[in-house]
């Protein structure tokens, strides 16, 4: 999988079929296989009973149809000799005077295994037990088929050099304990389902939710091939609802109710699945005493084709922390509620009626103030008990200064202005620092002076200092140790910079009156800056954070993929090129990725002692919860891999 970065390209097909016409069906199957192979597919699954058709009904008792099914299987096997693709087809198969509904796995001219359908529906429009036997009645673990000795049963896991997979058939998914639940606990990473599920009102949405949930529950890829319109007969209609899911997300679907052969293709990120399973200690057979005796046979599959020019067809989300437009309102409402709820609990626990926050006119302090206002409203405490302190320094511009004042006025909090200039100049004298030298001492002295003011003023009013720093700044260590790094409760520590901007815009649109909205819009339009260096002659901000540390949209992308999935730098680089191909050259992406890793490893000591703050998403850097890392851990091997990419 080295060339494919942990991705496996799979397909789910709904071919044109004719009931009981094996020749026609086989030709359509082979056409789809050929098309899929041109697209670099490693494995393709077809619907249940696709060789004969599922709705053949009592014709399944005709020996001629069963013989033709085997002849068709042999045709597919012969074609597969010249191919590397894994083909999974469905058919009826007679074994020892019993008929079974099976999925057959074929690769490189070999029939690798036969999996029998476990659960046979026998209700409403389904009559599987009229024709098929349960796999419990199998008396053989291997049979002869098409001149080969082939394993048969429900205990087969297939293993290629890239991934492991197992098979279940239609109804198996709809049961309380689908076979795939056990298959995945024993190592299957992708489940292929051969299905002939017909359509009724509402069934498609329910089916889709089953597939999505099962892929999430099993931390697996789920490739579902549904019978198409050709199966429609008498009283039932089929739509070809094939789809591919990965750990709860539907990645691809076919067009429903098509009269043509349809198949969907995408890549399943097996690397991601493995990392999730590694972290999730509940994903284990150890707690299932009834599974202790389960045994599987591992079927080795020839090495799948590696594409030296591998490219992704699936969409890579460039802003993984930001909710999509479809669920923006619900997600932002929930995130804001978590922040407000955490802060309100801290107020109640400390029996505190006042809070202090530094308001700079920037995004982070704006979000923190909005959270504080909402928490005070929730607890019926006067907003006047919020002390917003603006502390102009050497780099403060009129724009941010006025936005800070206007925002506090519009929200009705108590405003306090305390200039830090004289105090910092005196501090420079005390430590013998030349104030004309604009170095790290010049900058950090201002940040620490502001924190001292906030802490001492909080003591004066018997309140708590609320921190404003965000998750992206913590990841990069872009904060002054014991300066803005410190507070008594930090409401933004679970919110990355890209999400801060989205939240502030959402709050502006949904939570505030028009008087406050125009202020927030200007704040949103203001460049991100600590404003610790003097402004330009025109009064504009010269110290732009992203010029120094790099674009936050990139760093948030790096952070998410590193921590959420444990990806290697080379894979993150590959994904970033795909996600940002229209905005950044690959050399620039690599440059900032190196900056990210250097800063992430060198700045852990700051994260090791951060204040409490609400966890919001799956990524959090609290040393008490999600991220426990030695402060002196070396990043050498990560940087070495990046150096090798040049």
Topology of helices and strands:
Layout: E1 7-14, H1 22-38, E2 43-45, H2 63-80, E3 86-95, E4 98-107, E5 110-116, H3 128-131, E6 142-145, E7 148-153, E8 156-159, E9 164-169, H4 179-185, E10 190-195, H5 203-217, E11 221-226, E12 243-246, E13 249-253, E14 262-269, H6 270-279, E15 297-300, H7 328-350, E16 355-358, H8 363-378, E17 386-390, H9 398-411, E18 414-417, H10 421-430, H11 440-460, E19 464-467, H12 471-476, E20 489-490, H13 497-510, H14 514-524, H15 545-549, H16 552-565, H17 569-579, H18 586-602, H19 604-607, H20 636-643
Parallel strand pairs: 1-2, 2-3, 5-7, 8-15, 9-10, 10-11, 16-17, 16-19, 17-18, 19-20
Antiparallel strand pairs: 1-14, 3-4, 4-5, 6-7, 8-9, 11-12, 12-13
Helix pairs in contact: 1-2, 7-8, 7-13, 8-9, 8-13, 9-14, 10-11, 13-14, 16-17, 16-18, 17-18
């Amino acid at each position: 999988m080295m060339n494919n970065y942990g991705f496996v390209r799979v397909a789910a097909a709904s071919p044109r079929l004719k009931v009981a016409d094996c020749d026609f069906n086989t030709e359509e199957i082979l056409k789809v296989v050929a098309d899929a192979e041109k697209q670099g597919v490693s494995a393709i699954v077809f619907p249940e009973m696709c060789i004969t058709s599922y709705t053949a009904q009592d014709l399944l008792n005709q020996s001629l149809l069963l013989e033709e099914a085997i002849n068709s299987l042999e045709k597919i096997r012969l074609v597969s000799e010249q191919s590397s693709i894994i083909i999974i087809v469905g058919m009826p198969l007679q074994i020892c005077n019993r008929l079974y509904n099976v999925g057959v796995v074929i690769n490189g001219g070999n029939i690798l295994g036969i999996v029998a359908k476990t659960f046979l529906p026998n209700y409403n429009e389904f009559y599987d037990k009229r024709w098929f036997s349960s796999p419990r009645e199998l008396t053989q673990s291997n049979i002869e088929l098409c001149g080969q000795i082939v394993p048969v049963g429900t205990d087969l896991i297939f293993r290629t050099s890239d991934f492991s997979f197992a098979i279940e058939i239609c109804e198996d998914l709809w049961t309380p304990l689908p076979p795939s639940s056990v298959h995945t606990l024993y190592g299957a990473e992708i489940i292929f389902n051969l299905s002939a599920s017909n359509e009724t009102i509402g069934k498609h949405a329910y089916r889709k939710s089953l597939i999505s949930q099962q892929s999430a529950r099993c931390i697996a890829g789920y490739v579902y091939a549904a019978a198409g319109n050709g199966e429609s007969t008498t009283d039932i209609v089929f739509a070809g609802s094939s789809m591919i899911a990965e750990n709860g997300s539907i990645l691809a679907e076919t067009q429903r109710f098509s009269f043509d052969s349809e198949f969907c293709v995408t890549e399943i990120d097996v690397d991601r699945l493995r990392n999730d399973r590694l972290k999730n200690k509940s994903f284990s057979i150890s707690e299932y005493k009834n599974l202790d005796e389960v045994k599987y046979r591992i079927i080795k599959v020839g090495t799948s084709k590696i594409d030296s020019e591998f490219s992704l067809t699936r969409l890579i989300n460039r802003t993984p922390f930001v909710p999509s437009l479809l669920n923006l309102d619900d997600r932002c409402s929930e995130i804001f509620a978590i922040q407000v709820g955490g802060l309100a609990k801290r107020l109640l626990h400390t029996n505190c009626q006042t809070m202090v926050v530094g308001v700079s006119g920037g995004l982070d302090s704006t979000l923190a103030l909005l959270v504080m206002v909402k928490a005070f409203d929730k607890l019926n405490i006067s907003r006047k008990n919020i002390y917003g302190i603006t502390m102009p320094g050497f780099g403060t511009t009129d724009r941010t200064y006025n936005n800070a004042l206007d925002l506090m006025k519009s929200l009705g909090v108590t405003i306090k202005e305390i200039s830090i200039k004289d105090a910092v100049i005196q501090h420079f004298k005390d430590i013998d620092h030349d104030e004309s030298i604009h170095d790290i001492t010049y900058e950090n002295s201002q940040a620490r002076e502001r924190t001292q003011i906030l802490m001492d003023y909080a003591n004066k009013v018997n309140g708590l200092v609320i921190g404003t720093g965000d998750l992206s700044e913590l990841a990069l260590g872009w904060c002054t140790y014991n300066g803005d790094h410190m507070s008594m409760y930090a409401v933004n520590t679970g919110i990355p910079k890209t999400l801060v901007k989205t939240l502030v815009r959402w709050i502006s649109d949904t939570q505030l009156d028009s008087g406050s909205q125009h202020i927030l819009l200007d704040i949103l339009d203001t460049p991100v800056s600590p404003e610790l260096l003097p402004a330009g002659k025109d009064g504009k901000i010269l110290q732009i954070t992203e010029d120094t540390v790099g674009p936050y949209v990139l760093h948030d992308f790096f952070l998410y993929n590193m921590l959420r999935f444990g990806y290697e730098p080379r894979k993150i680089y590959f994904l970033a090129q795909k996600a940002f191909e229209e905005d950044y050259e690959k050399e620039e992406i690599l440059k900032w990725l190196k900056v990210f890793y250097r800063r992430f490893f060198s700045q852990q000591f700051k994260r090791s002692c951060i204040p409490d703050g609400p966890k919001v998403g799956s990524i959090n850097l609290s040393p008490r919860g999600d991220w426990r890392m030695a402060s002196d851990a070396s990043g050498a091997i990560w940087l070495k891999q990046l150096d090798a990419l040049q």
